[in-house]
Amino acid sequence: MSIVTLLPFIVLIGAMFLMTRSAKKKQQAAAQMRNEMQAGTGVRTIGGMYATVKEVHEDTVLLEVAPGVHAIYAKNAIGAVLADEEYNRILDGADPIHGGEPIVPDDASSLTGDTAGAEKADKIDLGKTAAPADAEPAADKAAADEAKDAKPADEVKDTVKADADAAKDDKKSGDDAK
After folding, report:
1. Given CA atoms 98, 101, 102, 108 in this order, what sign does their dihedral have?
2. What sign has the CA pseudo-torsion 139, 144, 145, 146?
3. How far apart are CA 174 and CA 178, in angstroms?
4. Which SS3 state, helix, strand or coil, does residue 42 take?
5. What percent of the chain lies above the pLDDT cut of 70?
6. Partner of 155 for a Cys bridge, out of 32, 96, 118, 151, CB 3.0 to 4.6 A?
7. Does the pTM exceed 0.90?
8. CA distance 103 to 101
9. DSSP secondary-structure letter at 74?
10. How far, CA to CA in Å, does 111 sit from each of 5, 54, 105?
11. Which residues, 6 or more positions from 72, have their beta carbon under 8 angstroms from its beta carbon?
């Protein structure tokens, strides 16, 4: 066999080796993170629940999921050990991402530098305006005209029944003629 025919197999085996190596590194990092857990740290389980570590055992962890509520989890069920700052932010619902940053306005008036002259009256209202009460839209007029021309439901039923009876009679008379 020549090297050219073996080259695709060599590349494939090399790629598989690199992928398994990176996955193995991730698993080792996760195991190290779980082993370094201490009581009092905040964690997120693989199910998405946030809790505080109370006790760490060989294969299990005692978590406080709510004040006074404890649950035992496998160490493998811990998805992430969170920093105290991040854990408190999640529990309190605070959003430090936008803490001290300026808020971007909805319009571009602040970008022009002339914010003093801009007043609420100068802004354009893009909302729908109410139509006058006496004005009737064209679609409503067409629907009203059709409603005037429409027959009552009883008349329609009677007409359909009469047509069906006539069709039956025609079919019977056609069968008799043969």
Report:
1. negative
2. positive
3. 7
4. strand
5. 63
6. 151
7. no
8. 6
9. E
10. 63, 52, 9
11. 60, 61, 62, 63
